[in-house]
Amino acid sequence: MRVGTDTLTAFAVRLAAESRRMLAAAALTVTAVEAKADRSLVTEVDRAIEVRLRELIADEFPGHGILGEEYGPCDLDADLVWVLDPVDGTAAFIAGIPVYGTLVALARGGRPWIGVLDYPATDDRWVGVVDGFASRNGSPVRTRRCPDPGEALLTCSNPDFFPPAERQALDRVRDRVRYTLYGASSYAFGLLAGGRTDLSVDCGLKPYDVFAPAAVIGGAGGLMTDWAGADLGFDSRGVVLAAGDRSLHTLTRSLLTPP
Predict the structure, then answer these.
(1) CATH of domain 149-256
(2) Which residue pairs, CB below 8 angstroms and at least 24 apart, start in 69-74?
(3) Class of the 5-138 domain?
(4) pTM (2 decimals)?
(5) What is the pLDDT of residues 39-66, one digit of tens each?
(6) Where are the alpha helices (DSSP H) in the chain?
């Protein structure tokens, strides 16, 4: 039996709520930290939340695939695949900076479709469906028009993640925009969906970092692709461009990937 969009969106919110419960409780204690092979940080909280979300998915939708940051892929060739980042912004969580949260996405046909961005420390939750809707804490949000890069606010998680060639591309964009802000993790994507910022340029991101934001931004009228303008997929190489205004997206692509 085919399950409707509303039911799947409600389940994505249920997953985010369960993660929020666990993450809020864990934030009250000092957490042991490990470094992964790529030097990113992980805690037992990351792992425990992902295990719990996988259990809920397996119980409710055993035919769906799952891709999570901590435990990898399962049935990626399924039409519907849940994409999970149990603690996005683990370093921020460890440091107590309140931009950490959980990203829950449902991919359809290997592309972002439904997304939830949830942040317990700020009590914020964005929910979105590509070409459908986007909301923040239950109120509709839309991206804003900003065709002129000279008026645009740009966000970037951390330029230290950029190899030299990609760093030069970022610099071309930074030289054209009004102002650049750093370090907000995925929270910046929610702000873009709500029209508070205009552009986001990043590098080194994985599907579990971007599928949920892409769904929310797409539902709010914006666009999130790779730097060449291609749709995000499980095999994307990690360079990401999001814009609230599609003409600004096109212009920024020309700066990132000049002929």
Answers:
(1) 3.40.190.80
(2) 69/206, 69/208, 70/42, 70/46, 71/47, 73/234
(3) alpha beta
(4) 0.94
(5) 565 578 888 899 999 999 999 999 999 9
(6) 5-26, 44-60, 90-95, 164-174, 187-193, 207-219, 246-256
